[in-house]
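Notes from the 1:1 (GR / supervisor)

We went over the backlog. Supervisor wanted to see one worked example end to end before approving the batch request, so GR pasted a single chain during the call. The sequence is below; no edits were made to it. Supervisor asked that the structure be written out right there so they could see what the output format looks like.
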Amino acid sequence: MTATVITEPTDAAVQAGIKAWLADKTAAGMMRTDLVFDFTGTAKLLTSLLPPDTGQLQGVRWRGGRKRGTILQWASTEPMLAARGQLRNFEFADLTFQSATPNAGGLYFLSSVAASNQDGLFKRCEWMGSWAYGVGLNGPATANLNSEIAFDQPALSNDASFSNAWLWSGMTPGHPQEDQAVNFSIRNSKLEGSHGTYLRFDYGGCVTIDGFNSWLHTGQSNDGVPAGTMVVLGPGPHADGVQMFHATGVRAELRSKDSRLIDCSWGAAGHVVWDGLSDTANAFKVGNGQTATYRGPARIAYRDCELGGWHGVTGIAPLQVSYDSCSSKFGNPFRATGLTGNGQLRYDTAAVPLVTAR
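Structure output shown during the call:
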């Protein structure tokens, strides 16, 4: 594929390159070239990366030279890039996005019936600094798509923080149509930021995680205090076929009592599965703290896991908690408080009542 090449790390050069790249497309919006950020250094951007009203853009590929070598820096709470239904079949690769202001606006995807984003890939991309969100998926009452998006080797630097989340789906409260945002793949992730939430699904879902996955909070930008809930699954209401979270191969380090793996409020159609989870590293720093919270009737399964903390179950009892071939410093790591309804714990294939608080 031929390329439109940006060779200087300046705002003027980046904007000129984007303009030239946009001018070279078919009448149907298929891009004829890749946009290549062919420089080593930091481009201090003054203008958002994608102009509005471009029409649908097909086959978008933006790539840098290398992660941490090609840095796009942003110092505004407005979106660094705003795709208002413009991107189909898109890819961002080998780029670092760096915030130069607190709570900077990240990559924003707004999708509706009239104009929708779909079929995307982030490959070897990194986020550094303080962000409101890294990637935000939003939609009005006519929300549609923002779906089928993969993240391969995503990274968060040790100083990265998020006041909302790194990946935030369902940014507008009261718009359940945002549940149209589905099918996300995250693999080989290095989510090792300072503090905040990494995955937040107020609406939307169907998330698969595999490969190696190193997750932790460093506290580097939070007075040294590791804090935040890595995964937040909101109560919805949700459409059918949305509430599925399946994570394989996560190694989570919970380095303080203020750091938590998951807080799930999904309903009875929800499924949360952890395969091969290990959260035992630095588990002594959590002590008797809660490392996971489940607040609704979603089915929860742990398989072949080693667990260092305990897991709170509260509110409406889960339809079933399955705990097979796992080890835990607590024996049975689940503690129930204030439950309504009847829950069941299936512990190494033997069904017993859900454990009460202790």
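Supervisor's comment: DSSP finds one helix and 34 strands in the chain.
Batch request approved.
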